[in-house]
From TrEMBL:
Protein's recorded name: PBSX family phage terminase large subunit
Species the sequence originates in: Candidatus Flavonifractor merdipullorum
Domain of life of the native organism: Bacteria
InterPro entries associated with the record: P-loop_NTPase, Phage_terminase_lsu
Length: 418
């Protein structure tokens, strides 16, 4: 791993618990702010160093939204950094367990996923000396509070990192707004706090977001969602279908009987996915509902003689999926995390990796009307003009994004912690 010097804020994260630190009496740390601001790996590195410096024979919790995302976002880069510092790390994948030793000390680190309310049961019963919650704003409150309740070992501390959400989010109101009450060290990060990012890279990230997501992920603000969801996207973004053959073909589907049904035909050319054609049927407007078989026939007509290799379908459309599979289509259920999917779709559109072509009138109409629900508590989109929006999101997350799937100073850690 290539190491770079720490920024002042990263140094504060690494040493806040040390005896020489002015924050040594704090019981928790929160690192929030912009994406790629250098907070995640630095927080993880400090957590493991603190655990190994202060405890022996204890258990700790490391939590993410899912164990898979935790491994991808933190563990994959953290373990090589720890080994470079001299730690011996043994990972037991089947048990979601990491054993770390340094000198005569050894501790165990359990990996947990806090996907939904039921996840709280996964962490019940274990006694922890400390817990790190990565992307805590994406976890349900019940899971977070259960994890904190497990930290009953004397000297235990709490570690949080996240990107901002809305100002009504429970974590913002309960922990950031009440930081003194909870004896928290709160550090807000921007991209300037990551020495590994060049100005060109920072500028590229700034181009990838707009509106609410720009305020949250570039400026690092806990900003409310309002206005159009894709506020940057208008007619000027539409492009003609590129000449020549496509490398791959896929179809995305949002199924509806009473509500409209929307299908999109996607072709891949030079690494870019083009929505070249679409189908949209509103049963209320037409005065007649269609059967699964009729929709399957419409999908065949949309595909034509193109070699469509995959149909990405609304995961709730069980009967329609079964109909398509019986007719020989290869069908996958779409990933359906709405907010994460919207962020991914917006980023792919802005980067030009997802293109809506001329002739796709129904999706363009929905882009111009798809809004945040300002009356809802938390981030929600209004349940209207969202059928093409849903199936475009299904395709973006399930297919397009999968094709396009930090550095610290070792000497500083060794001098200041061990």
């Amino acid at each position: 791993m290539q190491f770079e010097p720490f920024s002042p804020k990263q140094r504060a994260v690494l040493t806040w618990w040390c005896e020489t630190s002015p924050w040594k009496d704090r019981e928790a740390i929160i690192c929030d702010g912009a994406v790629r601001s250098g907070k995640t790996l630095c927080t993880g590195l400090s957590f493991f160093c603190w655990a190994m410096a202060r405890f022996h024979g204890c258990a700790f919790g490391v939590c993410g939204k899912t164990v898979i995302s935790l491994r991808r976002n933190l563990i994959r880069s953290l373990l090589p950094a720890l080994r470079q510092l001299g730690f011996r790390c043994t990972e037991k994948l089947s048990q979601n367990l990491i054993t770390v030793s340094f000198g005569k000390r050894e501790n165990t680190f359990h990996l947990f996923g806090g996907r939904d309310e039921s996840s709280a049961a996964l962490i019940q019963g274990v006694t922890l000396a400390g817990v790190l919650l990565d992307e805590v704003a994406l976890m349900p409150r019940s899971f977070v509070e259960q994890a904190l309740a497990r930290c009953s070992v004397p000297g235990s501390r709490l570690w949080f990192s996240c990107n901002p959400e809305g100002p009504e989010h429970w974590f913002y109101k309960e922990w950031i707004c009440k930081q003194e009450e909870h004896k928290v060290l709160y550090l807000h990060f921007t991209m300037a706090d990551n020495p590994a990012l060049t100005p060109d890279i920072i500028e590229r990230y700034a181009r990838s977001y707009s509106g609410t997501f720009y305020r949250r992920f570039v400026l690092g603000e806990w900003a409310a969602a309002e206005g159009l969801v894709y506020d940057f996207f208008d007619e000027s973004w539409r492009k003609p279908v590129p000449p020549g053959p496509m490398e791959r073909w896929c179809i995305s589907c949002d199924y509806g009987t009473v509500n409209p049904a929307s299908f999109g035909l996607w072709g891949r050319n030079n690494g870019i996915w083009y929505r070249v054609k679409e189908y949209y049927y509103d049963s209320r407007r037409e005065g007649r509902q269609k059967t699964d078989g009729e929709y399957a026939a419409d999908l065949r007509r949309l595909a034509g003689d193109r070699p469509v290799e995959l149909v990405v379908a609304d995961p709730s459309a069980a009967s329609f999926i079964e109909t398509l599979r019986r007719e020989g289509w290869r069908v996958v259920k779409a990933e359906n995390d709405v907010l994460s999917g919207i962020r991914t779709t917006a980023q792919l559109l802005r980067e030009g990796k997802l293109v809506i072509c001329q002739g796709c009138e129904d999706s363009m109409r929905e882009f111009s009307r798809y809004c945040w629900d300002t009356r809802a508590k938390g981030d929600r989109v209004r349940k209207e003009y969202d059928h093409a929006m849903d199936e475009i999101r299904y395709f973006a997350v399930t297919v397009a994004a999968r094709e396009h799937r930090q550095p610290f100073g070792v000497g500083f850690v060794e001098r200041n912690i061990f």
